[in-house]
Design a protein that fits this description.
Blueprint: H1 2-19, E1 32-36, E2 39-43, E3 48-49, H2 54-60, E4 64-69, E5 72-80, H3 86-103, E6 108-114, E7 117-123, E8 132-140, E9 143-151, H4 156-165, E10 167-168
Antiparallel strand pairs: 1-2, 2-10, 3-4, 4-5, 5-9, 6-7, 7-8, 8-9
């Protein structure tokens, strides 16, 4: 499925961007808020927009956004799935789970709530490449939202903190 391939590429690009970075930490003392593409969320004030990075633009064009600093990248894409039946949407979610588990070795699976709907969170507990990857995805209002957070540290707290502020507008 072409969409799954594009989304897998997004994760790989985020991992590559993080791999060469060396600084630690983030700064939540002065949060910033992103608002666009029908969503809003808070992120650390020391992060900058990484969406114009050529690797990210080539991967998902104008359907996604990424922010980060040094060894951390958070990004998301929105895919219109309104033409799919309920059964096809369920199949898509299950296909994503299997793809991320097998191709990216995201073995930790957790059900969470994002913006009032049920979401899946997958993460890498012990990455072999030194980059932790966390992915969450859900369907709301006929759109599939896929978020990714990569870091040299686990970062699940940072990822969940961003997701707790994620709202569709």
């Amino acid at each position: 499925m072409k969409k799954i391939h594009i989304l897998s590429m997004l994760l790989i690009v985020c991992s590559v961007l993080v791999a060469g970075c060396t600084s630690e930490g983030d700064d939540w003392s002065s949060n910033k808020t992103y608002s666009g593409m029908g969503v809003s969320f808070d992120y650390p004030g020391t992060w900058t927009d990484q969406s114009n990075d050529p690797m990210l633009v080539d991967t998902f064009g104008e359907s996604g956004v990424a922010f980060g600093k040094d060894n951390e990248i958070f990004g998301f894409v929105v895919v219109d799935v309104g033409v799919l039946s309920a059964a096809d949407k369920d199949k898509l979610i299950n296909d994503l789970i299997e793809t991320y588990k097998t191709e990216l070795r995201l073995t930790n699976e957790k059900d969470i709530m994002v913006d009032g709907v049920s979401a899946k969170l997958l993460s890498s507990p012990n990455p072999t490449d030194g980059i932790y990857t966390n992915v969450a995805f859900w369907i709301k209002n006929e759109d599939l939202y896929i978020t990714v957070y990569t870091s040299e540290k686990s970062g699940i707290e940072t990822f969940e903190r961003i997701l707790n502020t994620f709202k569709t507008t």
